[in-house]
Design goal:
mainly alpha; about 400 residues; globular
């Protein structure tokens, strides 16, 4: 029997860090109509402090922390495979169970709490990604690039189509989706300022009409690619903290030095085209889609440097505790976010500065509660349920 791999503190810290970062983007989805995630000025008020809150989150968080979490999920699949093999489990069988349990948790989260769930996506894509877990880093990165190019090709195709279709068809599509008074935007506002049953109906509509197509054309391919990148980074020793400082410094400079300007270029592109749907819906997002993972690499490298140098030890211990409760914390953020923004008429009525205050308050709660929870219990409630389902019997 092979030796059981030790738990890496760096992965727990990075998971906790990712949960904090993802909240910055998720709060916008809790508080604003989905069209505003693609066209941030659609509802007005896109100036002054409102613009700068959006701009900073767009450069440093959007399309950055989701890739970081996907990469960590991929690394986790490799580690789980090694651990299961060392303990005598049937690896494939248990991993399938884990993904099945995660899919059920994610489906419940999507239908009953928030339509922006990523757990179901990670579970479905994780079943595919797990088949690549034994490949060497170079092959993993090659496959990752290939998979990441698939939605890029789709985006180019759709951009061409939007520019080539007859003007009346384009305008009808724009009026239905891209404007403040469009039917879909108004329907969403009514649902999330209404009761829970109206919100449930809207979430079911999103799941049935949008989720499968997004999985097959965009989000599924990108999540798969980023999971494979995480596997490659783990196999290459990035997460072990055993590298010298210089590679982490170079990767941080590379990630931020290329990723942030690329994201800035995207903002300039979209503003130059006045957020016109034909340019911004697909082509305008590509700057962040490619720059965001580089920014994520920069963040991860900075965290690894802080660990090596022993910086912010008290804070990182709290973030580590949060990382051990990542699944429960992610679900808690959704409960808090929807409870706040879906009540009192606050949906699509909360300024971004107030959204920022909400983020800071939840960060404080998470960093205080997580260590206290682990003093009494070994794991979070969602993690306990997930593990209990996967390990109910030995294969």
């Amino acid at each position: 029997m092979s030796q059981r791999p030790e738990r890496l503190a760096s992965l727990d810290i990075l998971r906790g860090f990712a949960i904090l970062g993802i909240l910055v983007i998720n709060v916008r989805a809790f508080a604003e109509v989905s069209t505003a995630q693609l066209n941030p000025g659609v509802m007005g008020g896109f100036e002054g402090a409102e613009f700068w809150v959006w701009f900073v989150s767009h450069l440093l968080f959007e399309y950055s922390f989701m890739p970081l979490l996907a990469a960590l999920f991929g690394a986790g699949l490799v580690i789980q495979g090694e651990r299961l093999s060392a303990e005598g489990f049937q690896v494939g069988r248990v991993l399938r169970r884990r993904m099945g349990a995660l899919a059920l948790i994610g489906l419940g989260h999507l239908v009953f709490i928030w339509y922006g769930d990523i757990l179901l996506l990670y579970a479905v894509v994780g079943l595919v990604a797990a088949r690549f877990r034994n490949l060497p880093p170079t092959r993993l990165l090659g496959w990752a690039l290939l998979f990441y190019l698939v939605p890029f090709g789709f985006a180019l195709l759709m951009t061409g189509m939007l520019n080539w279709i007859p003007a009346e068809e384009y305008e009808a599509f724009r009026q239905q989706f891209w404007t403040a008074d469009s039917s879909l935007v108004q329907q969403e506002i009514e649902a999330y300022r209404g009761g829970w049953l109206a919100q449930l109906e809207h979430r079911l509509m999103v799941f049935v009409e949008s989720w499968p197509s997004m999985l097959l054309t965009e989000s599924g391919w990108r999540a798969l690619a980023l999971m494979l990148v995480g596997m490659a980074l783990y196999r290459g020793g990035f997460f072990s903290g055993q590298w010298p400082e210089s590679p982490y410094r170079r990767l941080a400079l590379l990630g931020f030095g290329i990723g942030i300007p690329l994201c800035q270029w995207g903002v300039l592109y979209n503003m130059t085209h006045e957020w016109r749907m034909a340019e911004s819906l697909y082509a305008g997002r590509q700057f962040n889609i490619w720059g965001g993972p580089l920014v994520a690499l920069g963040w991860a490298s900075l965290v690894m440097l802080a660990l090596q140098r022993g910086l912010f030890q008290g804070l990182l211990e709290r973030v580590k505790s949060l990382g051990k409760l990542a699944l429960s914390a992610y679900l808690l953020c959704s409960v808090l976010g929807t409870a706040f923004f879906y009540t009192g008429g606050r949906f699509e009525a909360t300024p971004r500065l107030v959204q920022l205050q909400f983020i800071l308050a939840v960060w404080l709660v998470l960093l205080v509660v997580a260590p206290l929870w682990l003093r009494r219990w070994r794991t979070g409630p969602a993690e306990w349920l997930w593990r209990r389902f996967a390990y109910r019997d030995r294969g």
